[in-house]
Amino acid sequence: MHCDHLIVAKDESKTDLQKAITENDEVYNFLSSISNKYGIGFWKPGAGIIHQVVLENYAFPGGMMIGTDSHTVNAGGLGMIAIGVGGADACDVMAGLSWELLMPKLIGVKLTGKLNGWTSPKDVILKVAGILTVKGGTNAIVEYFGEGATSMSCTGKGTICNMGAEIGATTSTFGYDESMARYLRSTGRSEVADAADQVKSYLTGDPEVYANPEKYFDKVIEINLSELEPHLNGPFTPDLATPISQMKEAAAKNNWPTKVEVGLIGSCTNSSYEDISRAVSLAKQVAEKGLKTKAEFTITPGSELVRYTIERDGFLDTFAQIGATVFANACGPCIGMWDRMGAEKQEKNTIVHSFNRNFAKRADGNPNTLAFVASPELVTALAIAGDLTFNPITDTLTNEKGEQVKLDPPSGDELPKKGFSVEDAGYQAPAEDGSKVQINVKSDSKRLQLLYPFAAWEGIDLKGLKLLIKAKGKCTTDHISMAGPWLKFRGHLDNISNNMLIGAVNFFNDKTDSVKNQLTGEYGTVPSTQRAYKAANIGSIVIGDENYGEGSSREHAAMEPRHLGVRVVMVKSFARIHETNLKKQGMLALTFANKEDYNKIQEDDNIDILGLTSFTSGKSLDVVLHHKDGSSETIQANHSYNEQQIEWFKAGGALNVIRAGMSK
């Protein structure tokens, strides 16, 4: 168990961590006591980001793991099949039940050549994201292979797998190789490396598969690493890929601000020793070449193990010399936990970071912040230059003496020469006997709230549903349930439900958090409008566009609509994890049989869902749209429910099915 989401990045690591411990004491104590009672290891605040911690301590070649975050896939860098899921899926597994998944397709990415100069593993996944888009990997496992894969570090592989979540992939992975053995031994797991070495032929693909990939993969992509350019992806979506040589033209064409205000490196995607050592090689050149860093610069270490080691090796001192701020070992700005000065002014500006996502408002809450994703090396170079269009491969900088100087390509160590070192990694082992540990939740707590069972389906068709919102365009789980300051309410479902869909754009007025209340005819916030429907005992429906619910595996994006009385979510297409989360919570997750029918939904519609009394796998449902003018029309809705998932719907949620089974 971990708690990496609740530390706000503002001043610097020690100050921010202490403030978080004070403000979140109730939540941290709850997590700690739960861990003790039920025999769960607990990584305390400041220990690091769970995906980095997993790679350092738990991941192993050939293993299979699920985790309640979309970036669980990071462990693919150590040859795992690691899959991000919602919390309800994890509950199934912990309760000893089977876990199911739609059989994925296979996408093979053949990497030839070798990375050099300014190009990094991050550029591989940025390139792949540009090819496949944010939904091109949906219901697919991506496997990377070839000489380019084996020449890459283990943590570099982890970076690529981590951002596989941004293409919608079920997971990404690499075959076991020497880089993984080196990493295992460096992190104190020589016995795991020895065991893997004994069966290494079983931990990678057969030679004939890699020799003839088209015969075994559903799709094959080939990338020559020797020719790959550094990329910048964004803004507002991680699949808008621009090679650095084309950024000047792209920025001018799209009127993107080219002054870089802040460069941020770290996060679960890029906070390895290798990442930081390559970035620090550039930071050293600031003084050596008489330069001055033009943008603000921040570092978010991924774990205490890495932070302590890079401090010992002098990296943090070097960063301090260029005015960098080191934030706490936590998710921080990557998930919106960044108290950025001036963000409330909502000025148009550009930042560059080595994180994984760059949706609107995600980092600092400002919808006008254009965030571009790049490697830590390129982020560092752009922060030094202060210019989005700076190409370090070809361009020069003017130093303090007026001289033209060029940055040398980054260099660094894959692993620390002196080995990793740490005084306190932040791990709390569970109590030997937790039977006497008491778990108390105050009835008036603003942070914690005990869950109650959701009501079972009434056994009849759903009729007279009010349209809550017809979401336009991209609607990620960040749009459905924002992070940032809202994360403090993750343990209190009713309070966090006040952020439900406040980031979604209303098709009918192009505004966020402004929908028509059909009971009053007035416009109000999405949560308040839905609470009015709930108080009147009236169900509602949410309509969405393509790849609805992409991004984080955030369970609350499904729990909040369920809690507030939304009965149906009908969209053009779903992201995998969110669709499953809706099913697990007893929601009806439907897709338009004809995507053009999305255009038939009107603002004042009352909607019926017919056919539920004979709800079966593979059989579509009728959706009747009752328009304000008295006319009506019937469209078809598809679904992907199997018989077990239909039982979840009927019972009011998967947990209700588990509860009923345990009571027998």
Detail the topology: elements first, then pairings:
Elements: H1 13-23, H2 25-38, E1 42-43, H3 50-57, E2 64-67, E3 81-84, H4 87-94, E4 105-112, H5 121-132, E5 140-145, H6 147-150, H7 154-162, E6 171-174, H8 178-186, H9 190-198, H10 207-211, E7 219-224, E8 231-233, E9 241-243, H11 247-254, E10 260-266, H12 273-288, E11 296-300, H13 304-312, H14 315-321, E12 325-326, E13 349-353, E14 369-373, H15 376-385, E15 397-398, E16 404-405, E17 427-428, E18 462-470, H16 477-480, H17 493-496, E19 515-516, E20 523-524, H18 526-535, E21 540-544, H19 556-564, E22 566-571, H20 576-584, E23 588-592, E24 606-610, E25 621-626, E26 632-638, H21 643-651, H22 654-663
Helix pairs in contact: 5-7, 8-9, 12-14, 12-15, 21-22
